[in-house]
Write a structure and sequence with these properties.
two-stranded antiparallel ribbon; 221 residues; single chain
Length: 221
């Protein structure tokens, strides 16, 4: 016969509470909807970098696209947190791989503005690095191209991780989920014991009835 009391399995990574890092990275998604397009538009000029037509070009092409992408990422993450049964916004988080991808993405965006070449009617005006660090325009252009490719690749990875992310509850929710099969098993054991008791009672009742009938026959004889 199976034992009623079973020890629950130890917690795994899927049942542990989300870290503060995961929660913080979730809430960075909201300001990034506006801050990242604005950073690409005029980030380099905030540190004394050149300004030219590239910012105006970005304002009507890349910036609106990034705004929509980051808005979609935030809304999907928000819906996934609400759907998995979170009680309050303090528990909202993203998966750990997505949080790490966001950190690398934000860092790449930050660095790209320092090597981004700008230009105007008189030709290329260089980048912040070429003006303040003495970096050649050719090297700055190559670094700008490399970081730009990394940005688009990381954005694709973030979108993929966002839509495939499966959020688990905190430790309490996960523990309840682990205990559910044990409770069901315990109920099954109780049911088996009850059925055994009932079968035993019915068998005893039949034997007692047969004995009474035998005694009555003996009396008549």
């Amino acid at each position: 016969m199976k034992s009623k009391h079973q020890t629950p399995p130890p917690p795994t990574n899927t049942t542990q509470s989300p870290t503060i890092f995961q929660k913080v990275m979730f809430w960075t998604l909201l300001p990034s909807i506006l801050l990242i397009p604005l950073w690409l538009f005029a980030g380099r000029t905030l540190f004394g970098g050149p300004s030219g037509w590239i910012g105006i070009t970005y304002m009507f092409t890349i910036c609106p696209a990034l705004f929509l992408c980051h808005l979609l990422i935030f809304l999907v993450c928000l819906c996934k947190n609400r759907r998995c049964g979170k009680g309050c916004s303090a528990t909202y988080h993203v998966s750990y791989p997505l949080a790490m991808a966001l950190v690398v993405y934000d860092t790449t965006l930050f660095l790209q503005q320092f090597v981004m070449n700008d230009g105007g009617d008189t030709g290329p005006s260089g980048s912040w690095a070429s003006h303040h660090l003495g970096l050649s325009v050719a090297v700055s252009t190559k670094m700008d191209a490399l970081l730009t490719i990394c940005i688009f690749f990381l954005l694709f990875v973030i979108m993929f991780l966002t839509f495939t992310m499966e959020l688990e509850g905190d430790y309490g929710v996960g523990q309840e989920a682990l205990m559910a099969p044990l409770v069901t098993e315990e109920h099954k054991v109780d049911g088996e014991e009850d059925s055994v008791v009932k079968d035993s009672s019915s068998t005893l009742g039949v034997h007692s009835t047969e004995e009474n009938v035998s005694q009555v026959e003996i009396c008549f004889v």
